Amino acid sequence: METAVYSTDGQELRKITLDDSVFGLKINENLLWYAINNELANKRLGTACTKDRGEVQGSNTKPYKQKGTGRARRGDKKSPLLVGGGTVFGPKPRDFSYKMPKMAKRLAVKTALSLKAHTDTLKIIEDFAVEDGKTKNLYGILNNFGLGERTVIVLNENENDRERVGMLKRAGRNIPWLSFLSATRLRVHDLFYGRRVFVLETAVKEICEFYAAHKNRRNVILEAKV
Questions:
Q1: No. of H helices and E strands in the chain?
Q2: Residue 166: alpha-carbon gap to chain centroid
């Protein structure tokens, strides 16, 4: 598919062709739901913890005699029925994360990119830098495309561009509705919920090469099995 490349002033510069195997797929809503839930589950800490009656501090002696008081029978003060007692079936520390098949995860990323490309919320921007790392300079660039919505910027983090990327992230860390993603480490959750997705021109090439390469490799494996 063909799309435009914009300057930092919001002006259209030229046209480029995107790989249809990455940006032109059919939308699979079930796969997107599965990938988003997987990412959210992997981020959960799972540190909630309660004490049962065997872990609560207190005496094991019977608080009062069994009969003759007119009160309920109590074995100890750590009963879950009493204030300060243990908790029945309370949460314990656990790991909520689970693995998702690699091919399904890559397909979900490509589906999210295709969804944004189809809805015109994905824009390709020429490579730019914020050399001084000041927020106001990056804010001025984003202002040319509209402000106040959740925005995602996809970067190409090469070894030669670490300083440029670092200053760009420094300029954007004070903007609450802005987040950064690497071209080879995309998150479906951020792409799906991003109202605007800006992809740098070099990052587009990296995305196409990275994900299209995995697709071609799969085709080679299937052909070899046949």
A1: 7, 6
A2: 20
Q: Which residue's entry shows tokens 């809503």?
A: 29
Q: What is the DSSP letter of 161?
A: G
pTM summary value? 0.80
Domains defined for the chain, CATH in brackets: 2-38+101-225 (3.40.1370.10)
DSSP summary character for residue 200: E
Tokens for 180, please give them: 């950064």
pLDDT digits (tens, 9 = 90+) for 6-19: 888 888 888 888 88
Rg (CA), the chain: 27
CA proximity to 133, closest of 166, 104, 105? 166
Q: 7, 3, 14: which is closest to 126 by C-alpha?
A: 7
Backbone angles phi, psi at 195, to 5 degrees: -70, -30
Contact between 18 and 205 under an 8 Å Cβ cutoff? The reply is: no
Helix (H, G, I), strand (E, B) or coil at 181: strand
